[in-house]
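Next comes this protein:
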Amino acid sequence: MLAGGCSSGKKAFERGDYYDAVLQAVNRLRQKPDHKKSIEVLKLSYMAAVEYLENDAQNQITSNANFKWRNAVSNYEKINNLYEQIRTSPGALKIVPNPVNRYKELTELKQKAADETYEAGIQYMMKNTRQDAKQAYFLFTEANGYSPGYREAIEMRDQAKFNATLRVVVEPMLDNSYGWDFESAVFGARLNEFVKFYTPDQAQRDSLKRIDQFLRVSFNGYQESRPNVTKRSESYADSVKTGEKTVGGQKVPVYQKVSGQATIYEKTITSRGSVRLEVVDAQSRAKISSDEVVTNEAWRDSWAQCGGDARAIPQGIKRLCEKREPYMERNFLLNQVKRELDNKLANTLSNFYAQY
């Protein structure tokens, strides 16, 4: 961003990107109104950019290209953007005192673009597939953006969204000895706008005429190991200053060799939890996906026993020697595994339904 902010736009001009060259020059002049290179680039690029965008828009209009009005609108919006950028840059306004705009022309073009995208949306809706309904949704949204309230764009957009939405009923999870429920993780997963989860009660209450998939989450199990303690012995040696003596009229330090020992213990408890995630086609009852979501967690802590001269023992080991044998907090790993399974389950669902 800093590099772009300091650019005069000369390189963009040289490669024929006049629009970007103008933007860079204007931004530079907003910071430094007397920047010579930017002044030069703006003089050379502005009318070239307007003429290119204008000509391209007219060529689009006279062609038989799909979405020609949309493309023309894009070009005219760029001309208006240059107009607004120059007006808010005193340095640029000195160079181009009368920037042009196409607001009047844009109003008519947007109306035609709205009609164009609306009719394209109708064509996609007539194909009567979920994927085509998604395209129709975006086209009706675009049509309404060009001309708010255009015809039945809002109603058609909502209908397209309804047709495009994948309806998934989440089956109740069987009870388990830990009382784990993954409903909050499932319904809290970040899904794209064309996927919706229902409980069986919600599906019945909404009188769903079409169910696309069933989703099942089953608890596989949880295991926790017994505490495992390992130990290792370390020896330490050092020289410590114990005083001073005078040698040849000068004081020199006196050192003493010291040694110490430590037995370092580490206690570890491991755990593993898993759930099975299955997605089933509502019509054929065939399995679409079956994944095991697994998490492995561990708790570990250390303590030590020290001997010998404490002055030889590193500070970190001394702190371990001050500790007693640690004990894991009750249900620590159980709760940690549940949290991680929730997170992984939600991420798995988000990734799987991203394709829909």
